[in-house]
Amino acid sequence: MNEAVQAENFVFSEYQDRSINLTNEDFQFIKNKVNNRTGERVEVKPLSIEDNNFIIRSKGYVGVVKLPSGKRLQIKPKIGNLKLLKILNYYSFEEEILDIDGETIFKEGAEFLDMLGWLLQREVKTILNRGLHKTYVKREEKSKYIKGKIDIEKQINSPLKNKFFIEYEDISKDNRLNKLIFRALDILKKIVGNRDLKKEMSLQGKKVRKEVDVEKISLGNLKNIETDPLSAYYDRAVRISKLVIRNVYYESLKYGKAPAYCFLLDMNEIFEKFVRKLIGEILPDRTVRKPRRGGVDNIISPPDFQIVPDILIEGEEGLEYVGDVKYKKEKRGGKSLTSSDYYQAISYGLATDCDGFLVYPSRSDEWQPYEVENSERTIHRLPIDISGAGEESYIDDVKEECEEKIRHLKLLRG
Predict the structure, then answer these.
(1) Could you report the per-residue pLDDT of 314-343, keeping only the tens digit for each?
(2) What's the first-to-final CA gap in the chain, in angstroms?
């Protein structure tokens, strides 16, 4: 990638306002590319139009945005990059991938993309040492010799009398696993900041590229790419690669003088998945899950919209609790929730005839439940401090706090 424009870094945290000068191409890129698929991920407000000065703010997304002018926005999670990686590792992987003792790239201040890139190149190094996985792939070609079976329809309609249209299976490294790995390497080598890492990933990409035909991996195809017992050593690389491809937008054409891209993670989605797994492990005798498509029964007739909570807790006799997860900026005094948050939880409780609960990041000790007037329902509050726990035993510390509060609140009877 030709970095003709030296990147000017702007580092700020999620939900933090930052003043910045934007060109028209920058503004259009944020409006049409960064924000077009999933709504407004980066909020932009004019401060002084004459001076092209704007206020930008991330709305619950973290990562990196490279603008056409060369400016590079690094949006950091409030919990820190390493803790974010630990959360992703906890709910995405069945085994620990963060065995990173002594690695300088994981020191304080390192970029999240560099951390992610280092993990991928480590897994790819293992794959290359063991050898790229081979699978049987379907081949179609014209040949003087018969191999496999003849495509009768093509053969009848062909004017070629000395060639056969054949189909056969061949064992090859040109398969979806290796194409996925190559695609992730090709993306990350262009957007990581560490030069040594760029070089290493480029070398790895060249080795994989020799064995595969380049093709674009669509989001729809990602869920169909899985490992099996013979390719289990790819598992961690596949999960990291999917995370990269799902959350990146890379503009191969040039907006202005430099390529533009964005890699943004939705902290609302991450926190929801994290909480759901935490509660599921704390309550192993219950089923803790996300509602199936269609949500839950509505209390409005006719139902013009669906009620879809984030968490359902089920016991032997059916649904016991319904919960909603709110990833919000903590306000002064530990206040995070609004009236609409409580009304939403109340509607879930009334619709399901169950008590409800709200989970949100907060250091507040105010977590007594609220009784819903003229109803037998109770709304429990479950604040979780995801910022204060130490890095070394981060997941265990957060889990211990969450379990203590669940038991103290008597969220579940018996």
Answers:
(1) 988 888 899 999 998 877 655 678 889 988
(2) 60
